[in-house]
Amino acid sequence: MTGAEPPLAGAAPSGAGPQASAAAQVSVRPARAEDVPLIFENIGYWASQGRMLVRPMQNIFENLRDFFVAEVDDGSGPVFAGNGALHILWGDIAEVRGLAVAPGARAKGVGKALVAACEAEARRVGIPVLFAWTYEVEFFERCGFTLIDKTRDLHPRVWSECLRCPFYVGCNENGVVKRLDGVPMPANLPEPPPAQVPPGIR
User: Which long-range contacts does 40-44 make (Cβ < 8 Å, 24+ apart)?
Assistant: First the structure.
């Protein structure tokens, strides 16, 4: 579920600004309520291109503390450049999700900066493994992730999330993981609850 460093296509979301210059500086900060319309529009744009799942605005507000916003500044002030989120699934794993670089801000290191912010937050709270669904495997591999076999290597909590996805049947996204060096597995971690298969799915 990512638009990390996606190809340019169509018009940029409003507020995404002009094409960032080569000298633009990238910064990442926690998202604020005022960012939600831009996050919603950016995700919606890439969802319309078939590159990620659409995310309702209510869901973004409810998970606002998960989100980071990237901005680029070419000397005329910071401009929205993308968004990403770190969603904790269990005591040993968190998902990088909602990762989308704004059209016009591609190839500036925005995607890598957002992933780095998610990794730093995972380290801060003691989560040792990052997971992501993506079409952009090579991008995540450059960020230190490894492709997994999603038919057998999914964490139970990831599997539970999958069963609630409208694209569960016929999903063609790839799963990637990264074990964070220096972050120990939490002690006495309880087992996650088993995945509940919704009616109609076998």
Answer: 41/13, 41/14, 41/15, 42/3, 42/13, 42/16, 42/80, 42/82, 42/83, 42/100, 42/102, 43/3, 43/83, 43/98, 43/100, 44/13
Helix or strand holding residue 174 (H, E): strand 174-179
d(CA 196, CA 28): 36
Domain covering 2-179 in this structure, CATH number: 3.40.630.30
Q: Where are the alpha helices (DSSP H) in the chain?
A: 36-48, 57-62, 110-125, 137-142, 156-163
Q: Model confidence at 189, in pLDDT bands (50, 70, 90)?
A: confident
User: What are the sequence ranges of the domains in the chain?
Assistant: 2-179
| Surface-to-core class of residue 121, CB atoms within 10 Å of its CB (0-12 exposed, 13-18 middle, 19+ buried) | middle
Q: Closest Cα partner for 86 from 141, 38, 144, 30?
A: 30
Distance CA 89, CA 195 (A): 13
SS (H, E, C) 85-103: EEEEEECCEEEEEEEEECC
Q: Is the pTM of this model over 0.90?
A: no
Q: How far apart are CA 190 and CA 187, in angstroms?
A: 9
